[in-house]
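Archive transcription. Copying these from loose printouts into the bound notebook so they stop getting lost. Printout 1 of 2:
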Amino acid sequence: MSIALCYGTRPQVVKASVLLDALRRRWSVVSIDTGQHYDFELNALLYQQLGVPQPDHFLEVGSAAPVSQLAAVMTRTDDIFRARPPAVAVVIGDTNSTLGCALAAAKNDIPLVHVEAGLRASEPDLPEEVNRRVVDVLAHVLCAPSEVSASRLRKEQAPGTVVTTGDVARDVLLRHLQVAPPPAGRTPFALATAHRAALTADREALAALLAGLGRIGMPVLLPLHPRTREALERFELLAAVPAAVELRPPMGYLVTIAAVRDAAIVVTDSGGVQREAYWLGTPCITVRGETEWVETVESGANALMPPLSAPRRLAELVVEQRRRRWESPWTSDAYGDGHAAERIAEAVGTLLD
């Protein structure tokens, strides 16, 4: 009996680092990396830093148009599943890798477990929303990271069994925070990240964010996702980067969590960075009109800001969020206690039984 664990992007490799351990304590696990992220900093470096064993299968789908990428994930995963069907397939998140592997499992009658089930957004044309909703319908077990997401799945009458497991990203953070680089002792700085297609495909929005970052009154570190660097070049915005904004290559996981920990403020469109800031006590501003991680906003740890409003709103929000951090510190227990991977393994065991 074997379990297939499927992943393919930077955040999924991070989460796979703890899921592999929890699942392999009980079963043989076949790991499948689709290769959706293939840059060293976005994939291979994580294997080194987090001690993730090399995958049993690396599908090398790379970059492509969404439908082509999805088709490549599905057909290449299907080849693996037909050659040696696993007893259960486990998928993570809401990417094309998630949906492609989930569809391959469904077409081969393989029971499916969805990690990070029940997240929702209402933004029009959000690619991740299509993926997560379809996977939540296909899944036999839905591992919700919070009570809010579990409750949402029950209201939607999701066909599978809903289990509140907590967030495996917190498991990873607690495991590796002690080996992250120590504080550098520099002057207060902001950490910014921007990678979502909705932002990097819109020149006006990207330019507005850059302008806002230049007005917050402190140095800004901006590690560039490959998609973001390509967008800055395509839109001829590199010359518009403010002097206070330091562009950097993508950072590995350990350096990233250290930067989140040490920053005075985080400005991001990343769901993972939002939660890391929430757990590490760093005030956050999310460059979107909404977030799937609603608990971070409800706690006061996070504030929402559409990118086009950054030139006039970002500096003010930075002041507000930093003040709120000291006047009303938040608790960080909305996404479990750091044992999500163990609970997911228990849910897999129940499904097999």
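Printout 2 of 2:
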Amino acid sequence: MKQFLIILGALLLGMAVLFASSSTTQALPEYAAQTGEPCSSCHISPSGGGPRGPRGQAWVASNKPSTVPDLVRSLELLGVEVSVDLAYFTATNPEVPEAEALSVEPAQGQKLFRWLSQYDGN
């Protein structure tokens, strides 16, 4: 009887492990085909699979619509508030000084021409 319970327990444990491993989520190429985006749009790994980035998390949270939201919309869907002070990105001194004309000494030009003409590429 004891041996039967051990075998039954091992069988149940094996079935639980098998069931748990078969139900794990995986990256599916049909999602990339459905959205027209590469796997890296949603996943941190460029090849897909594994943890999702913000766009992938927002896409799943939105019940997997036909398009993956852009990053700003994804952050909004995830509850991240993004605020930007445009003054930080605005140039305070828009006047750019006039550039000086480039000049090359004839000896430098000949040396550069020889080097370029003999260069065979990579």
